[in-house]
User: Which sequence fits this backbone?
């Protein structure tokens, strides 16, 4: 059931910087607040497959069967997520013109931004684990069906995710002019973002579950 504990815990989880936050902030610095908005939409949409897996009971199956949990499907998703994070690290490191403002260059398409961000969260098996370990704690046996409660709580979590990511993007956009005018800051941020994506990828690669 929706409670203050659920809202506070969800907010803490959403505020913790992860791959989605890093992508949203870097996009805001590179392409502005409009682009960061579409990135936030994509990151939020990427939660849906993990949510559906939890609601349909697939997460419970994975949790109760160690063999299934370590099965090919989970490992495949995990390896794809690692590869995608390392690709983002490599692309960010190599993109020397990432923070340059060029009014003649075509802006990134909304669909492309959403897809890139959506893939980032779809290829994150830890989200399924999160829904498995987190949401069931707030399911009431005396309330509506567990599936409906899961959908309701997940909807609140997704709305909170979107709102927080939008705020991250807007805050990053405030510093965009300063970043663009300083080559030193650009290089430092580019390397920091690349290192962050690489670290997240390696952390996922060596995660036990």
Assistant:
């Amino acid at each position: 059931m929706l409670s203050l504990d659920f809202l506070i815990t969800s907010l803490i989880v959403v505020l913790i910087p992860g791959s989605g936050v890093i992508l949203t902030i870097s996009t805001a610095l590179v392409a502005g607040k409009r682009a960061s908005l579409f990135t936030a939409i994509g990151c939020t949409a990427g939660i849906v497959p993990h949510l559906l897996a939890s609601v349909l009971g697939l997460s419970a199956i994975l949790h109760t069967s160690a063999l299934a949990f370590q099965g090919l499907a989970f490992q495949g998703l995990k390896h794809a997520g690692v590869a995608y994070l390392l690709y983002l690290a490599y692309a960010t490191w190599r993109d020397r013109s990432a923070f340059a403002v060029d009014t003649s260059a075509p802006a990134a398409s909304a669909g492309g931004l959403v897809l890139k961000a959506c893939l980032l969260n779809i290829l994150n098996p830890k989200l399924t684990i999160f829904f498995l370990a987190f949401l069931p704690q707030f399911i009431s046996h005396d309330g509506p069906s567990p599936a409906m409660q899961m959908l309701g709580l997940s909807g609140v979590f997704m709305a909170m995710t979107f709102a927080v990511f939008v705020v991250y993007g807007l805050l990053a956009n405030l510093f965009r002019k300063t970043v663009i005018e300083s080559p030193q800051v650009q290089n430092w941020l580019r390397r920091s973002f690349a290192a962050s994506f690489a670290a997240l990828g390696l952390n996922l690669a060596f995660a036990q579950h």
Notes: DSSP finds twelve helices and no strands in the chain. The chain has a mean pLDDT of 78.
